[in-house]
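ok here's HIG1 domain-containing protein:
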Amino acid sequence: MESMNVFLTILLLLAMAATLFMLIKGIVTFLRTSEADLRSGAAGPSASSLKQNKAMFGRILFQGLAILIIALLLMAKGN
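and the structure:
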């Protein structure tokens, strides 16, 4: 059982690192958005907006994974 806790802890750290990476990636993409991107009259979202949405989705996915791993660790601790 102890090896499972170590494995889940390592997975949790990886999920947390991935969440941080996606957060930073989204912020960098946001900061690189130019005024021309914002004022373009193109129909539909810009390439920058699509990248920001992809980064946000990845961040949410990794956060959810981290929460799931925490729940598993807490359930294992309760036994």
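+1. The radius of gyration is 18 Å.
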